[in-house]
UniProtKB/TrEMBL annotation:
Family: Belongs to the immunoglobulin superfamily.
Species annotation: Chroicocephalus maculipennis
Superkingdom of origin: Eukaryota
Pfam name, any one: Ig_3
Location of the Ig-like domain: 6-101
Cellular component aspect of the GO annotation: bicellular tight junction; cell-cell contact zone; plasma membrane; protein complex involved in cell adhesion
One function term, GO molecular function aspect: cell-cell adhesion mediator activity
Keyword Transmembrane annotated: yes
PANTHER family referenced in this protein's UniProt entry, alphabetically: JUNCTIONAL ADHESION MOLECULE C
Single biological process term from Gene Ontology: cell migration
Protein name: JAM3 protein
Subcellular location: Cell junction, Tight junction; Cell membrane
Keyword annotations of the record: Cell junction, Cell membrane, Disulfide bond, Immunoglobulin domain, Membrane, Signal, Tight junction, Transmembrane, Transmembrane helix
Signal peptide: none
Length: 101
């Protein structure tokens, strides 16, 4: 079963240096969906250590639960966030939401 549009929760504004949690979830997909996050339409690498572009980022993505956690946000984390739920039958994307730091 193709995933339905996931429900995304993105905080509107987060003070610099604070942590932030972004959530993405849908229940219809079978097999269970995996989740990937995007900032300004660029995919956020789930593996920040091996990707030079993301080495200064302090976030972790859990593809199974759809949670994106910033441990300490900085100005560069400001942007439009969206999430895509994917399984063998297809994918669905939530609306982009702005997070300001």
């Amino acid at each position: 079963v193709k995933p339905m549009t996931p429900r995304c929760t993105v905080p509107k504004a987060v003070p610099v240096g604070k942590s932030a949690s972004l959530h993405c979830h849908e229940n219809e997909g079978y097999p269970k969906s995996t989740y990937s996050w995007y900032r300004n339409s660029e995919p956020l690498s789930p593996d920040t250590k091996s990707n030079a572009k993301f080495q200064n980022s302090s976030y972790t993505v859990n593809p199974t639960t759809g949670t994106l956690v910033f441990h300490a946000v900085h100005k560069g984390d400001t942007g439009r966030y969206s999430c895509i739920a994917t399984n063998d039958a297809g994918f669905a994307k939530c609306e982009e939401q702005e997070m300001e730091v």
